[in-house]
Amino acid sequence: MDKRTLLALALIAIVLVGSQLFFKQPRRPAPVVDTTAAATATSPVTTTANGAAPVAPTPTPSLATPAPADTGRLAKQPPTMTTLTTPKADFILTNPGAAPTSVQVSSFRDLSPKTPKGTPVRLRAGKAPLLRFRLALGKDTIALDTVQFTVTQLGGATTFASPFLRLTYQAAADGFRTEVRGEVPNAPPGTALLIDLPPTLESVEADSIDDARHLAYGFRRPRRDVESISFSKLDSLATRVDTGGMQWVAARNKYWLVALMKPVGDSGAAFNGLVTRGGPAIGKVKRLAHATTVFPVVNGRIAFDLYAGPQSWQVLRAFGNELENVNPYAGFLHAVVQPFATIVMRTLLWMKATFQVNYGWVLVLFGVLIRLLLWPLNQKAMRTSIQMQRLQPELQEIQKKYKTDPEKQRDALVKLYASHGMSPLSPMLGCLPMLLPMPILFALYFVFQNTIEFRDVQFLWLPDISLKDPFFIIPIVMGGSMFLLSWIGMRGMPPNPQAKMMSYMMPVMFTVMFLNFASGLNLYYAVQNIAALPQQWVLTRERAKAAAATPAARKT
């Protein structure tokens, strides 16, 4: 090879290398399969008649650690919002994403001190959307918030369309629910929709800390009890995995709920497992967490319902899937408290619908009603107490006479009780009516903790019967009526220092304990105490007459 050839080759090499160094071409962007141009990847692919790229079938994906809601590459075009209006709520849907970012419930006021008075409630998950979808399609997992859809609205339906997915939101008649239906053309076996639940629910309550304490995820397996996972119980360094088919999954705070559920009327499972992980704590309260569930796409179909609205007992119960139990109050006592709470709730709702009055007056009527229902039992209990007072001299005499012979003492006591139409259990049964109001009070406490029907209800000077009395008037009246009830009950009874001390201590303890309880709960308890005063006064007079007659009878 001559010198001229070598020189030519050297010059060609210099030109090639130099052009790459001095005239750099911009780097081609990495192919993004999760856009509407998913079929234009770098490797050549063929398309079907409807334009979707066929992919190799893969098994149903297992639930991985939930992805934070702010991950994923956004589509180039800015997001646009579409409003789906239902009779009771407005669902704000985003494109890219094909998911609800927030839901406005105009029939409820935002009570947060940071918002102007009269602002309607808007359910939001901070900077994240309420839901986030990812489609596991063959080898690719497509984040829908990187996909630009074509959006059409017709009647009460909003449809998001792309070459590989069509998703429609149809407003339901109940107002807080939308029917989510979708199609995945030529979906290979194992295709699934991964759904990230809200990482939080912004507080719209006056007490945001108490609201945050109620943040939780929940789910229900078919024919199983509802399970709840509080944000406070989740660890940011560990992932919790709940497996199996689930009828619904949900995120909630004190009064509001975002739930995904099997279509109404279908009792089977729709969702495959739930993976949860905690977020960082803000102060002493955890307000963030992550949760992901899987909806298997069978025969290319997607069908579930989205509920976003209040935890209204009547509305949720109508679904017939126990969604009304999404907030399992009372902890390990739930099984005991729930029947009482259900009875109390149904009674209050019936009274409200029947009398058409403010819930404050409903509680007043309910307190009086409870005392009227217990009147016969209390009457019998108090008269049993009066009889026991009359029998005290004879009881003491029998105990003294048969002090060393327990068997004869027992027989003598049985004969004495029988001669007066009583039994040895009469003293114990006589106290039972006094304890009956306590389960109702206990159940009502949890009803006020979790029932949205009492939220923002004004009564007399009370701005909200679900919150504490700002002037502490009702708790003081409650404590005063409790003391007066005890004081009247102690009249005419034999001196008992211990009972006297309790009659002073209990009203004080209850007043202090009830100061920060819901003012409606205090109202109920004060009313039923006041309603019991006439009966207590009448029975105390009977006791006094019996005590006066007993010495005279003994003298004769």
Properties at a glance:
22% strand, 556 residues, single chain, Beta-galactosidase, Chain A, domain 5, nine-stranded antiparallel beta sheet, disordered N terminus, six-stranded antiparallel beta sheet, disordered C terminus, 11 helices, alpha+beta, 2 domains
Oligomer: single chain
Question: Which sequence of strands runs across the widest sheet?
Answer: 7-8-9-10-21-16-15-12-13
Described by the principal axes of the CA atoms, the overall outline is: elongated
CATH classification class of the largest domain:
Mainly Beta
Enter the CATH topology name of the largest domain. Beta-galactosidase, Chain A, domain 5
Number of strands: 21
Strand content: 15-25%
| Average pLDDT metric | 79
Task: Please give the radius of gyration in angstroms.
Answer: 35 Å
Task: Please estimate the helix content.
Answer: 25-40%
Poorly predicted segments: 1-9, 11-62, 64-75, 552-556
- Category by helix and strand content: alpha+beta
Total domains: 2
- CATH architecture call of the largest domain: Distorted Sandwich
Number of alpha- plus pi-helical segments: 11
Largest sheet: 9 strands, antiparallel
Q: Report the span from N to C terminus.
A: 152 Å
